[in-house]
């Protein structure tokens, strides 16, 4: 039975995305949704957009046609917010704020978390990459299988965040264990045990950051936390400790599991499309094109978890989204919309060669980092980690191959992995 037959009478896309078939391969259902129900009303009343043009417009219109929930409305969109630490922290993040509060908070973090600051991390990132590959090499060279997800894709962003925050590596590994649980606790339709696990992990992160911030204030170093708590002669405004904790909590959530998943997807693309590896053997422009195509083909976040509330009745594709409706966007479907990207299921880095980050040669925007006022603050950090990793993996292990099929996490929200076993082919094998 094909996708259309199985879903023609379907009433909830979120439940379908959590089905075993979609967890294995969500893109046939996304194609059906985009073609037959692009402005989908789920059983919960949420609206889900799946066409690139609609998603792009909605992201760009946030702050105008759409807004985040006001404090007094939080219980409507997050019924358990009164008892959940994770949901309270989410409510205080930059992603949930509207101008002018959003404008102030984004300015305060952007004055220190700059492109220059991220570029200064490149030598450290390159050193971490080389050390992780050195650690994998002996087992691979003995013909053994190595879990690249655990040994590299997960480890790299953990160690990079340790550098960025100026904290011991072991401390970051301890905090990172719970990030996946927190992310699962923030998705729609989460159950009570998942939310409880998220809250326990959030409490550990909150307590650690609450201790880290005053230490950085009294003993500042060259890290982002020290900069964010420091005084600025040209700007007297500062982040409160509560604002800074929510910012750093949000940065961890937005940049850890997603970067690890994208590294995994990039390695799988290297193995699945060996004819495209030449992009990783040339200049930085070619590497950038490969990275952007990985992000387009396999967005780590399937759909938005943050409510975007319609400020008025909005008509899209003949469907009226009523005022005050909660609207989410299916980013992964928009990235594979043929109206935006020709032959969208084909892996083709050429579509991003020589362009601005995130923009195709046809002028279309890759949606994985969002767009508009809530464009991902960590986009450049993720891109740098990928750009520093992939050419080195290709050069160090040119005969890398799957040892067995990767194992994915059973999540409709995050397309992430539990294991990615790899080995080396014998030369000529």
TrEMBL record:
Cofactor(s) demanded: heme
InterPro entries: Cyt_P450, Cyt_P450_B, Cyt_P450_CS, Cyt_P450_sf
Keyword Iron applies: yes
Extent of the signal sequence: none
Metal-binding listed as a keyword: yes
Keywords: Heme, Iron, Metal-binding, Monooxygenase, Oxidoreductase
Tree of life domain: Bacteria
Family: Belongs to the cytochrome P450 family.
Protein's name according to its UniProt entry: Cytochrome P450
Organism: Mesorhizobium shangrilense
């Amino acid at each position: 039975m094909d996708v259309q037959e199985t879903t023609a009478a379907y009433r909830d896309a979120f439940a379908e995305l959590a089905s075993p078939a979609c967890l294995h391969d969500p893109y046939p259902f996304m194609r059906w949704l985009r073609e037959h129900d692009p402005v989908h009303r789920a059983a919960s009343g949420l609206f889900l957009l799946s066409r690139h043009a609609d998603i792009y417009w909605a992201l760009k219109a946030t702050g105008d046609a759409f807004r985040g929930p006001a404090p007094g409305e939080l219980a409507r969109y997050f019924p358990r917010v009164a008892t959940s630490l994770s949901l309270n922290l989410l409510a205080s993040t930059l992603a949930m704020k509207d101008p002018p509060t959003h404008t102030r908070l984004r300015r305060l973090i952007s004055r220190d978390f700059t492109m220059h600051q991220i570029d200064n991390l490149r030598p450290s990132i390159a050193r971490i990459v080389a050390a992780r590959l050195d650690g994998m090499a002996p087992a691979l060279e003995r013909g053994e299988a190595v879990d690249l997800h655990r040994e590299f894709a997960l480890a790299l962003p953990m160690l990079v965040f340790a550098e960025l925050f100026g904290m011991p590596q072991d401390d970051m590994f301890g905090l990172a264990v719970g990030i996946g649980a927190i992310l699962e606790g923030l998705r729609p339709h989460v159950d009570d045990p998942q939310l409880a696990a998220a809250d326990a992990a959030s409490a550990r992160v909150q307590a650690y950051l609450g201790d880290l911030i005053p230490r950085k204030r009294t003993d500042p170093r060259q890290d982002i936390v020290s900069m964010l708590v420091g005084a600025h002669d040209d700007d007297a405004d500062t982040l409160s400790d509560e604002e800074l904790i929510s910012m750093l909590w949000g940065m961890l959530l937005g940049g850890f599991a997603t970067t690890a998943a994208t590294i995994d997807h990039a390695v799988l693309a290297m193995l699945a499309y060996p004819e495209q590896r030449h992009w990783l053997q040339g200049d930085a422009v070619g590497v950038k094109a490969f990275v952007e195509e990985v992000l387009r083909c396999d967005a780590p976040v399937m759909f938005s978890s943050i409510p975007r509330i319609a400020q008025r009745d909005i008509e899209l594709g003949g469907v009226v989204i009523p005022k005050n409706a909660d609207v989410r966007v299916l980013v992964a479907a928009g990235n594979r919309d043929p109206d935006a990207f020709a032959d969208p299921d084909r892996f083709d880095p050429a579509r991003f060669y020589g362009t601005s980050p995130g923009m195709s040669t046809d002028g279309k925007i890759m949606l994985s980092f969002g767009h508009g006022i809530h464009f991902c603050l960590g986009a450049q950090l993720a891109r740098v980690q990928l750009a520093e990793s992939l050419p080195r993996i290709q050069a160090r292990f040119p005969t890398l191959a799957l040892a067995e099929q990767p194992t994915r996490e059973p999540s409709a929200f995050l397309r992430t992995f539990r294991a990615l076993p790899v080995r080396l082919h014998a030369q000529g094998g």
